[in-house]
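Hi everyone, sorry if this is the wrong subforum. Our group has a chain we'd like a structural model of before ordering constructs, and none of us has done structure prediction before. Sequence below.
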Amino acid sequence: MTAFFTYSLWLQSSEKHSMLLMISVNTSPPDAPRLPSVSVSPSAEIVEGSSVTLTCSSDANPAANYTWYKEKQELLRGQTGIYHFSSISSEDRGNYSCKSENQYGEINSSFVSIDVQYAPRLPSVSVSPSAEIVEGSSVNLTCSSDANPAANYTWYKEKQKLLQGQRHIYHFSAISSEDRGNYSCKPANQYGEIMSSSVSVDVQYAPKLPSMSVSPSAEIVEGSSVTLTCSSDANPAAKYIWYKENGDPDLHPLSKEPQLVFSSIQSSDSGEYYCTAENELGRRTSEYISINVKCE
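Answer:
Right subforum, don't worry. Here is the predicted structure as tokens:
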């Protein structure tokens, strides 16, 4: 409580002159600190790297000392009620409070929340499932980046834009062999953007329909060298077997290599040939190719 006292004093300088002097004294008795208030400057959006000041105000007699806290952890203690960030960072966001105290008591303020806005951090891309990816399975690519406000995401395959929006997940409901390749993402908000490193998606699949070729492709003459080649797109790589169609239900393989080589082809080698391509995911049989050997 504050009390006011008035004192009256007559001053006489001579027999003829005197003066009435009135003195008012304002006395404040000792008092514990009142409930502190905490203010933030600037009061608008706080962007990473900017200067920010927290001010704790509390009426007390004698003047209070102040202690600053973040999430109830002590930060600073002293006579000033100011806590200053010369260049605030995203790690500084959180709830702050102060305590004012003198020899007559102490009291804590309520919390004030500091929200620091910042550009996206370097993103990471993960693939699920992380084990072997087989054609036809469901696959998710996830882009993770810390940002405030939340980022929008752009997805790329081999640097070609695929999708842009708020979703940080790129989903394949039934992935195909054509989807294999290198993927990356770019998170962005109004404070910046950053590109992730690329992640490779390897899709395993059974052999596609094999194709065959004959060399030389011109007329085949008895005694010449002839090579048949079987090729099939497969992951993992296919193993090949060559057959000659002769009506025998128990056909015997001619070769287990991608190429069937005749170093000196004979007229008896004329006929229809085919190959198979096989890996652990499946087996495909080619169409027939006809070889007609001319006698010299």
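For your construct planning: Residues 36 and 109 are 5 Å apart (CA to CA). Residues 211-294 form a domain with the Immunoglobulin-like fold (CATH 2.60.40.10).
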